[in-house]
Amino acid sequence: MTAPAKPGTPASPLSSPLATLTGVGPALSEKLHKLGLDKVEDLLFLLPLRYEDRTQVLRIGALRHGMRCLVTGEVLLAETVFRGRRSLLVRIGDGSGQLTLRFFHFSRAQQAQFQPGAHISCFGDIRLGPAGFEIVHPEYRLLREGQSPVLYDGLTPVYPITEGVQQGRMRNLVGQALRMMQQSPPVELLPAVTRDKDGMPALAEALLYLHQPPRDANLEQIADGQHPCQQRLAFEELLAHYLSLRNLRDLTTLEAAAPLKQGQSMVDEFLASLPFKLTNAQQRVCKEINSDIARPHPMLRLVQGDVGSGKTVVAAIAALQAIADGAQVAIMAPTELLAEQHWHNFCDWFRFLHIEPLWLSGSQRVAAKRQTLAALEDGSARLVVGTHALFQEGVSFNNLALVVIDEQHRFGVHQRMALREKGKQGKLHPHQLVMTATPIPRTLAMAAYADLDVSVIDELPPGREPVQTIAVPEARRPEVIERVRSACQSGQQAYWVCPLIEESEVLDFQAAEVSFEMLRSALPGVPVGLVHGRMKPAEKEKAMRLFKEGKTRLLVATTVIEVGVDVPQASLMIIENAERMGLSQLHQLRGRVGRGAARSVCVLLYKQPLGQLAKNRLAVLRETNDGFVVAQRDLELRGPGELLGTRQTGLPQYRIADLLRDAALMPKVQIAAEALRSSGTRAGDAIVRRWLGDAGRYGKV
Ligand code: ADP
Ligand code: MG
What we know:
globular, seven-stranded parallel beta sheet, seven-stranded mixed beta sheet, 38% helix, 4 domains, disordered N terminus, binds magnesium ion, binds adenosine-5'-diphosphate, CATH 2.40.50.140, Rossmann fold, alpha/beta
């Protein structure tokens, strides 16, 4: 059974199905398929998890706790003992020391093998037991008189395996694949200039080394992923993903969009009506957006800006350009609370221009919704603000030219693609602006957002004082309440944030409702409001309005206020159970204060004892207010999956590369990619195909 060669791919034995290997029948094929292994080549890219050293016998006297090694010795004593459970203890010695082999499961026959005087070799994890060094359940072999143990030339690879595929079987299959590779090496796809510059080994050489490293290989370096052979493979893989995303980006230049260029005078009017001047960073980003949307191809731009950097007004300016052109704009926010706040903002901002934004959300009354839908369909509505309901069945636009997605920090390439398709009208795609307050460190953004253009608002409006952040143990809650009282009485406003809305026995969080009652009775005379995710939209809106108008001075809230909420007078924030929250989330929450002129304080209330990770998180927040620094630290503490929302968004899993560990490769990857793209050859396509398959994975929506 051999697969026909794919068009354009030279038929290589490495691309044949695994069934061509000796010992692989349908049942094993199926099991390997579950591991994502279909072709012979796939085995080559399945790198060992670690290695075992069976190249030499270690003297017992030289053993250390934590080693995994081969030793030989003579059985001195074998006995079964009952200490809690029955076990067989075999003591061996080699003249340099003694070692105990401990078995919890053993047969009578096994027991009989360990006659004093017998010679054995054994392999396993050395640990310090009650009576010196021991190995629990070693692999062992009896040696005949004068026989020496089997020694390997190189280190033994240990592969990630699945149920039903034995380690030995896996080694055998990879061994066959490696022999095939040596007979017909895979095509070297990295250009020589790229490899030579960094002295990168050839692909086949790197693979062979990592599967069968020599006995003197630097295993620590390999464990850290820093070996040149690993770096070379990671480089090619990152390059493949990057190229694939760039290809996707190129596709949009083949697509049509309405060029928007009529809006300048309306924008000028709007700017003149604002009580502030745009920051330089805001102006720069507006210019970038401007030149994007003036083109007849869809914009695909991500605006990154720390909390409070003023992204909303940038979105408003983009919206005006579309409106001035007679087209429609949809602004989408991830929560009702935030969408509603935007809606109010846009209503206020655009009133004098006689632009009336419409509202659309899932929980809206049927009649009102029907009206909005009709106005979107017949084109009488220019601007609509809402939640993801905007892009559900039954919504059709008349001439949608711009989609703005706010505060989307979990937004993968597939969603970006899907949204573009949904907004499509005839041949025209809408321009797309994505705004996020969770900045992604530059090198990571290069890898994850190569299909987008990225703008950064790297400046806060003037006069913002950094938020002072302090961490306080829960035991000092009364002091904190006192602080809230005096702040509220001296005319300030405060948030009290609780992570969950109902008392949960499992999670032992403070419930917002409980805190609300507690604070109300502790703070007589202070008007307290409550907002949480389970309230009806109208109740939520009312609670927010009362707070915004200053009628309530303290707002008890769940993390629904995490994104976007903007009440500049609030200058104190208390966050309960801060130790349970992620770094980016805490930074987002903290961003709700420090928006006005008053000096703001954020109090992180935590339960003792603090774990190391939580300790680190709180320390980062105390030290910096800079969202980019926070993001970098978050990345280091949690890894890129969490930061990019990999799980939710189906961001690709890498076979060898690790976005955090290998981020430093990205600038070089980018250079190599651009060189390949402008070389006029198909070499880049082959790299994408090798690592991502024929579909290039990202191309699929
Ligand atoms: P974010 O980037 O977090 O979405 P917002 O758009 O909510 O920030 O803006 C935060 C606050 O700063 C708002 O009250 C907004 O009106 C105000 N703001 C925006 N730009 C400026 C500016 N250039 N100067 C002063 N205040 C500004
Ligand atoms: Mg915002």
